Amino acid sequence: MTEQTGIADPTPLNDLEEKLATGNDPDANPVDVILSFLNSEVYIISSDGIEGEDSQVEPLVLGNSEGAPVLAVFSHPTRVDQQYLDAAPNVLGTQGAAIIANIGEELGLVINPGAAYGFEINPEGVANIKRDFKRADEQ
What we know:
Elements: H1 15-21, H2 30-39, E1 41-46, E2 61-63, E3 69-74, H3 82-87, E4 90-95, H4 96-102, E5 108-111, E6 119-121, H5 123-132
Parallel strand pairs: 3-5
Antiparallel strand pairs: 1-3, 1-4, 2-3, 5-6
Helix pairs in contact: 1-2, 2-4
Protein name: SseB protein N-terminal domain-containing protein
InterPro entries: SseB_N (IPR009839)
Organism: Pseudarthrobacter equi
């Protein structure tokens, strides 16, 4: 296993990263990125491990450039930089839809902080996703 450095391999590792990679293209559709996020397995990191089915974890929350809290979410376990693992060594997989469903109203999220493929969603954007995107069985 190699230790991660500041610049990770830029090759997209999954559908979500492929969508993130095209995010700056003029013809890119942000809905495609959001749908991919909601339907993908994503990863949070925590200082807590999972002890059982009902265990609660406190995921790593960072401060953005304005100092507002954002939940750190990663598109692949290898995208977690060592600096984050030092603070929160447990990498936990979950669905992107579960992240959106359980995130608090005052919290934004950042996907792949500091990496080539990533972006930040402010709390208002998270609320918009909760409002506008429903699971197919909730229609």
